[in-house]
Every structure is written in C-alpha cells, then in structure tokens.
Amino acid sequence: MARHSFHISTDWPGLRNDTGTLSSENFHTKISIPTEMDGPGIGTNPDEMLLGAAATCYIITLAAMLERSRIEKTDLTMTSEGIVEVVKGVITYKEIIHRPILTLGPATEEKDITLAKKLMVKAEQSCMITRAIKGNVTVQVDPEIHM
User: Fold this and answer.
1) C-alpha distance across the termini of the chain, in Å
2) Residue pLDDT, tens place only, 115-147
3) Per-domain residue ranges for the chain?
C-alpha cells in the first residue's frame, strides 16, 4: 500500500478576528473568518477550503473517468455551493452541491452521452474527499451536458 503525506503550514499571530496565513509548497494565502460569521473576510477560510477540496477532487476524478472511457469532451466547468447551517450557535457544514457542465464533441454517440451522465454521478461517489466527509456532509451533483 502506498502512503502519501500532504503538508500545510499555518500562522495565526492574533485573536479571533485577525488574519493568518496558510502555506504549502504550491500555494500561499491569507486566512480569516468569513464576513458571514462576523469575521474580517480576508483571504480564504475553512468553509471555502473544504468546498474547494471537494470541488477539485470531484472535477479531477470526473475528468479521469471520462478519459478512461474515451469520451470526447470539449469543455468541463463547474460551480459548487457549500451550505453551512447555524443552529443554537453551533455551525455545521450541511451540504455541498456540485453543478458540473460537460460539453461533448458534436459527433458523440448516444451511448457515450448516457455513460457520461452516469460518470458525472459516479465521480462524486469515487472522490477521496467525498468519501472522507461521508456521513457528515451531504454531497449532491446537479449535472448538465451540452453538445
């Protein structure tokens, strides 16, 4: 079994409503509490980072599945929404909705369109991040296919 480690460094010099930094080998960004939660809203925040992890994992997984299935795509874009709920002062990440838009080549056969639709759902179930949050955060896919 192969194991991989990922490393992140954080620095938080102040108190609750201050700004810190988050760094890895490939990125560096400011972090703070979002304005929706009475923070300064500078840089990114844990809620966006979780949504970003789920979104990038899903879209990369889907692209790999389409490639393995030899489905000709001309474009793949997506928006994702993270829904956070506050009940009695407790903040809970409730749901993530991915809205991928897949554009297929004009000569795509009906069987490949049907397979692409199945893969757009299956990619969510196969994504490592989705599996990691399963049972805590609901993840939905609302796919669109264009020709």
Assistant:
1) 41
2) 999 999 999 999 999 999 999 999 999 999 998
3) 1-44, 46-146
Q: 141 and 108 in contact (C-beta within 8 Å)? A: no
Reduced to 3 states, what is the DSSP secondary structure of residue 133? helix
The pTM for the full model equals 0.91
CB within 8 A of 73, min separation 6: which ones? 63, 66, 102, 103, 104, 105
With b meaning 16 or more CB within 10 Å and e meaning fewer, what string describes 88-101? Answer: eeeeebeebebebe
CATH architecture designation of domain 46-146? 2-Layer Sandwich (3.30)
| DSSP characters over 12-60 | --S-TTS-EEEE-SS-EEEE---GGGTS---SB-HHHHHHHHHHHHHHH
**Which residues in the chain land under pLDDT 70?**
none
